[in-house]
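Reviewers of the previous submission asked for a worked example of the structure-prediction workflow described in the proposal, so we include one complete record here. The input consisted solely of the amino acid sequence. No template or homolog information was supplied to the procedure at any stage.
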Amino acid sequence: MSDIVLEIRQNSRWKLPRADILRGLIMQKKSSTPAHTAKLRHRAEVRLKGRNAHAAPPRTEADTNRLLHELQVHQIELEMQNAELQEAGDKVETLLETYTDLYDFSPIGYFSVDEEGVILEVNLTGAALLGIERSRLINRRLQGFVDPPSRTSFQAFLKKTFMGPGKQICEIPFLNERSIPFWADLQAVSAKSLRNKRKWCRLAISDVTALKQAEEVRQSLEGMATSNRELKREIVHRHKVETALKKSEAHYAQLFEESRHMQEELRHLSHQLLLAQEEERKRISRELHDEVVQTLVGINVHLASLTAKSRINTKDLRRKITRTKRLVERSVDIVHRFARELRPTVLDDLGLIPALQSFIKDFTKRTNIRVQFTAFAGVEQLNSIKRTVLYRVAQSALANVDKHAYASAVKVSIGKLPGAIRLEVHDNGKAFDTERVLFAKRHKRLGLLGSRERVEMVGGKFGVESAPGQGTTISAEIPISGEGPKGAAKTSRKLHAVSMP
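From that input alone, the workflow returned the following structure tokens.
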């Protein structure tokens, strides 16, 4: 019986008529199972004997009894076969109903297609996928529901399916009866019919549109994630650029402010220089008028008196000549002093150290401030411009000591540093606020500003240190790189020392 059910399942896939299936199975069963027939006859004979045991003994001849026996056995055999066939039919009907439910209501569309793509059989799910009744799909070409650009690919897929026994898989876009597109996953395997040699294949079609859309959404999300990462990198880059621009703007703003401040300083310094020049000219003019002119007038008066008196004794003449000589010498000294203040000739003729010695000597005599001077002999190898800068810095520093420091002693030193010459002027006078004096926008000391400008003009460094109880130190460092004539002897490290009370 299990063999019959198996055959019914196998033949039901091809949708053969039910009567043909039953007839074929019964005939096949009778022809192929003689043992079953003998067993059935034996059972019929046993049942007949049971019936004859309760019946009256036959009163016919032996032949009649034998014939009646045969007829009764065949009748019982037919009754038993009929019962078995009825039972088998019921089971087949149940299996067919189960198969029909599984086949028609499967979530996948099942098609039976020949080599030309003609639809032989289809389940309800397949008909629903294509949006058309099942009866109208039979004998139609499945290619008509394939998206036109993909029909060549579908034909190649069918050809490949019929070429071998293996299962073929592909994905092709379809159009249903209402031209609504959907993506179909195709899985096909070739098969053969029992009644003829016509080639056909079993084709399973699944709607994978949702999966395709999900894949597209996933790819789109991945693309968006990639774009977001690139956008974040771009934002970080632009933030860095913006930060750099802000720093650059702040730097340029600071440079602009410093430049404006320097311009203000230069204008103020120019104004102070003009005022200083006018004051110096006024002082020189006043001293020339008060001293030189009066001395020359006195000389002229003396000379006039000599010429007015014709008779004069020798003693008076000598006395007047002596007075006139003193007036001339005084005038010469005044002119020499003016010349030294404007530009000492000894600086060009003898060098920096003798010029400073001469200036310090006059400074000490004029101010009664004790000055101690020490110098590095190699300073004379500096060029004229740098030696002049050091001289003017020392001159300005001592002038400030005389005017503002109220000091009793000053130390002036010129020393050697690696690659530079350092001048220091230190006094023991009262201190002052260097920040207020050097960096105030108004009322700056022209001497300090001029000294700083001179030092920076030759690439040097200018410094001022002042503290209560420690006095004030003014320093200037002048680079010596590239100084001195070629082949010059090494400079002596001997220090010249001058101390003046």
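Residues 1-32, 483-501 have pLDDT under 50 and may be disordered. We consider this example representative of the routine output the project will generate in years two and three.
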